[in-house]
Design goal:
The chain has 180 residues and is α+β, with helices and mostly antiparallel strands. Helix content is 28%, strand content 36%. The strands form two sheets. Strands 3, 4, 5 and 7 form a four-stranded antiparallel β-sheet that branches. A three-stranded antiparallel β-sheet has the order 1-2-6, with no helix packed on it.
């Protein structure tokens, strides 16, 4: 069945082009394409009929299986008192990349995911910059915004200022935030 479904569109294309040629060059010996009008009707029948045939014989596309997810009530959310006391512990950074702009400032791009049951706002990111084993300083900035419950805040090119020295590695964490 796979070969037929793969070859059918090619055959349909060839038959449609051949039928279209007979519209301008009818064959008087062939009754189906003896006149331009009959050739046009044949072309339309081949073109539209072939399209229907290709659509009907195409295999059904299977949707990818849904990602397993737990119901909101089934997830173990942390105690709201703990979240209010230390909201920075419930923000997870992912995909964080540090770059240097022309002025030498550290620009941070990435995402922050809220894993608590409360909204968290204005996380302060702190990054320790290093060059090999030598420390190059620590830079930090506040990312303005609110992270919804279970949601993600994506930030791009947040300016953290200049590091004290040259750097080629970084380690970032959330050091402060507000629970709403």
């Amino acid at each position: 069945m796979g070969f037929v479904t793969a070859a059918l569109p090619v055959l349909w294309l060839i038959a449609s082009v051949a039928a279209f040629v007979f519209v301008f060059r009818p064959r008087p010996g062939w009754s189906v394409v003896a006149t331009p009008a009959r050739a046009l009707a044949t072309f339309l029948a081949v073109f539209l009929g072939g399209a229907v045939l290709v659509a009907v014989t195409r295999p059904k596309e299977e949707a990818p299986p849904p990602a397993p997810s737990l119901a909101r009530s089934a997830r173990a959310l942390p105690d709201p008192a703990q979240v209010r006391a230390h909201p920075e512990r419930f923000v997870v950074l992912d995909g964080v990349q540090a770059n240097r702009n022309k002025a030498g400032d550290v620009l941070l791009t990435g995402g922050a995911t809220n894993v608590s049951g409360l909204e968290i706002a204005d996380p302060r990111l702190s990054c320790r910059m290093t060059k090999g084993r030598a420390a190059a300083g620590t830079v930090s900035a506040v990312v303005q915004g609110t992270i919804p419950i279970g949601g993600k805040l994506i930030f791009a090119a947040i300016n953290l200022g200049q590091a004290a020295g040259p750097w080629d590695r970084w380690s970032c964490q959330v050091v402060e935030a507000r629970a709403l």
